[in-house]
Specification:
The complex is a heterodimer of chains A (227) and B (235).
Chain A lengths: L12 E2 L2 E2 L1 H11 L11 H18 L10 H17 L12 H22 L1 H6 L11 H47 L1 H40 L1
Antiparallel strand pairs in A: 1-2
Helix pairs in contact in A: 1-3, 2-3, 3-7, 4-6, 4-7, 6-7
Chain B lengths: L1 H14 L2 H10 L22 E2 L3 E2 H11 L3 H15 L7 H130 L2 H10 L1
Antiparallel strand pairs in B: 1-2
Classes of the chains: A mainly alpha (227), B mainly alpha (235).
Pfam family, one (chain B): Mt_ATP-synt_B
Subunit structure (chain B): F-type ATPases have 2 components, CF(1) - the catalytic core - and CF(0) - the membrane proton channel. CF(1) and CF(0) have multiple subunits.
InterPro entries (chain B): ATP_synth_Bsub_B/MI25 (IPR008688), ATP_synth_F0_suB (IPR013837)
C-alpha cells in the first residue's frame, strides 16, 4: 500500500460505515439552539448577534424576492465556515475538499437562480448576457462569451472552494512533513520551516473564512441579477 | 354547553376510582398541569469552571481526596508519556501541524476571549437598557400624571377663592355704580335748590333796591322848598 499525501482527502469509511455523514452533521451538532428566553447566555447571544449582522449585510443589496433566500444562504455560510475551520485541526477530514460536495452545493443553487430569473423576468435575465455600452461589432461575440461564462459559474464556484481548501491542506501537510523530516538533521532549517508553517496556518485560517464568504457572496450576486 | 357537560362528567369520572381511570385520560384537557406553567429555571451566570481551558474543575476535585493537588497532572503526564513511548500516538507531520494550529487557537482565545465575552454582555445590557427605558418612561409619565392631578385638585380648591374674588369685584362695581348715581342725584338736587335760593336772593335784592329807590324818590319828592332854604341858611 503506497501512502500518499492525498490519503487525507479520501472519504473516511470505518467498518463499511461512511463517516462523512458524521463529518457533515458535525457543524449542526456544535452550535447551540437559541432558546425562547429573552436574554440568553453569552454563547447564544454572540451567535445570534453574528448571524443577524451577517444576514443583514448579505441581504442589503437584494430586493424582497431575494430575502426569501436568507435562511438558505446564512445556513450555507455557517456550514462552510465551520467545516473549513474544523478541517484545520489535525487528523480531521474536511468535507469541503470533496468536489462532489461543492458541486452539489453550487450547481443546484446556481441553477435555481437562473431558472428564477428566466421564469419571472426572462427579458432582464437574457439582457444580462450583453453588458451595456458594447460596440455593435462585438455584440455576437460577446453574447457567446457571456453564455459560456454563465455556464462556467457553477463549475467555478465548486472548483474554487475545492481547489483552495485542498491546496491549503496539502501545503500544510507538505511543510509539516518537511519540518518533521528536517528536525533531526538540520534543526535551524526546521525552525525556519516551522515559522513558515505557522504563517501558512494563519493564511489557511483566513482562506477558510474567505472562501466560504466568497461562495455565499457570489451566489447572492447571481441571485441579485435574477430576482 | 357541551364542554360544561364534558368537564362535569370528567370530574365525576375522576372521583369514581378505577372504573373511571381509563375514561379520565380521554377527557383530560391539555397543558393545564402545573409542570407546563412552572417558572423557567434561571440561567447560570457563567459556564462550568475549567482549568487550562479544557479540563473541567470537577476532574480535579474528583482526584483530590486520593491523589492531592498534583494528582491530575501526574495522570496527564503519565498518559502522554505512555502513549508516546508505546507508540500508541506516533509523532508525525500532523503533530507539527497540530502544534501550529494550537498556537494560533490559544493565541486567539487568550487575546480576543475577554473582549468577545464582554461584548456579549454589552449586547444583553443594551436589551436591558431598552426595556428599562420603557419602564422608566412609563413610570415618569405616570408620576407626571399624578403631579398634574394634584395641581388640578389645588386649582379646584382655589376655585372658591376665585369665585369670592369675582363676587367681591361685582359687588364693588355695583357699589361704585350706586354711589356714582347717588352723587349725581345729590348734585342735581343741590343745583335745583341753589337755583331756588339764588332766585329768592334775587327777588329780595330787587325788592330791596326797589324799596330803596322808592324811599329815595319819596324823600326827594318830600323835600319842601322851606327845608331847602333852611339847609342853605345853616351853611
Amino acid at each position: 500500500m503506497i501512502v500518499s499525501f492525498f490519503d487525507q482527502f479520501a472519504s473516511p469509511v470505518f467498518l463499511g460505515i461512511p463517516l462523512i455523514a458524521i463529518a457533515i452533521a458535525l457543524p449542526w451538532m456544535l452550535y447551540p439552539t437559541p432558546s425562547s428566553r429573552w436574554v440568553n447566555n453569552r454563547l447564544i447571544t454572540t451567535q445570534e448577534w453574528l448571524i443577524n449582522r451577517f444576514t443583514n449585510q448579505l441581504m442589503l443589496p437584494l430586493n424582497m424576492g431575494g430575502h426569501k433566500w436568507a435562511l438558505l444562504l446564512t445556513s450555507l455560510m455557517i456550514f462552510l465556515i465551520t467545516t473549513n475551520m474544523l478541517g484545520l485541526l489535525p487528523y480531521t477530514f474536511t468535507p469541503t475538499t470533496q468536489l462532489s460536495l461543492n458541486l452539489g452545493f453550487a450547481v443546484p443553487l446556481w441553477l435555481a437562480t437562473v431558472i428564477i430569473g428566466m421564469r419571472n423576468q426572462p427579458t432582464v435575465a437574457l439582457g444580462h448576457l450583453l453588458p451595456e455600452g458594447t460596440p455593435i461589432m462585438l455584440i455576437p461575440v460577446l453574447i457567446v462569451i457571456e453564455t459560456i461564462s454563465l455556464f462556467m459559474r457553477p463549475l467555478a464556484l465548486g472548483v474554487r472552494l475545492t481547489a483552495n481548501l485542498t491546496a491549503g491542506h496539502l501545503l500544510i501537510q507538505l511543510i509539516a512533513t518537511a519540518v518533521f523530516v528536517l528536525l533531526p538533521m538540520m534543526p535551524v532549517v526546521a525552525i525556519l520551516t516551522a515559522a513558515l508553517l505557522f504563517m501558512l496556518t494563519l493564511l489557511e485560517v483566513a482562506v477558510a473564512m474567505i472562501q466560504a464568504y466568497v461562495f455565499v457572496l457570489l451566489l447572492s450576486l447571481y441571485l441579485q441579477e435574477n430576482v | 354547553m357541551l364542554s360544561r357537560l364534558v368537564l362535569v362528567s370528567g370530574h365525576i369520572l375522576k372521583n369514581s376510582g378505577s372504573f373511571g381511570a381509563c375514561l379520565v385520560q380521554a377527557s383530560r384537557s391539555f397543558h393545564q398541569s402545573s409542570q407546563s406553567r412552572a417558572p423557567v429555571p434561571p440561567l447560570p451566570e457563567k459556564g462550568g469552571k475549567v482549568r487550562h481551558g479544557i479540563f473541567p474543575e470537577e476532574l480535579f476535585t474528583l482526584l483530590y481526596p486520593k491523589t492531592g493537588v498534583t494528582g491530575p497532572y501526574m495522570l496527564g503526564t503519565g498518559l502522554l508519556l505512555y502513549m508516546l513511548s508505546k507508540e500508541i500516538y506516533v509523532i508525525n507531520h500532523e503533530t507539527f501541524a497540530a502544534a501550529s494550529i494550537g498556537v494560533v487557537i490559544i493565541y486567539g482565545v487568550k487575546k480576543f476571549g475577554p473582549s468577545v465575552a464582554a461584548f456579549s454582555g454589552i449586547v444583553s445590557a443594551d436589551k436591558f437598557d431598552v426595556a428599562q427605558e420603557v419602564k422608566d418612561q412609563a413610570m415618569a409619565s405616570l408620576a407626571q400624571g399624578i403631579e398634574d392631578e394634584k395641581k388640578e385638585q389645588w386649582r379646584v380648591e382655589g376655585r372658591c377663592m376665585l369665585f369670592d374674588a369675582k363676587r367681591n369685584n361685582v359687588a364693588m362695581l355695583l357699589e361704585t355704580n350706586y354711589r356714582e348715581r347717588l352723587h349725581m342725584v345729590t348734585n342735581e338736587v343741590k343745583k335745583r335748590l341753589d337755583y331756588q335760593v339764588e332766585l329768592q336772593n334775587l327777588h329780595r335784592r330787587m325788592e330791596q333796591e326797589h324799596m330803596v329807590n322808592w324811599v329815595e324818590q319819596s324823600v326827594i319828592k318830600s323835600i319842601t322848598p322851606q327845608q331847602v332854604q333852611g339847609i342853605w341858611s345853616l351853611h
